[in-house]
Specification:
22% strand; 81 residues; 2 helices; alpha+beta
Length: 81
Amino acid sequence: MKRLYATPSVDEAQRIQALLRSRGIESSLNTKGGGSVSTGAVVFGIYVEDKDAPEAVGLLAALLEKELEPDEPDLPMTDAP
């Protein structure tokens, strides 16, 4: 297993996992840190199988690149209530 990404946001981690799953890539989510989710001291690591890592990296890069384009009309709303 290789760590693909780490984030303090469980929502972001789950969104990335959903993207990977939609492309047939299974992943696991592990937490690291001594705090709790509410204090923000927890980091969620997304892990994929070694054989899936190259494709997963490409998907994650495309997702993150798209999120950095503010004028893109079909961006997912990450902070919406």
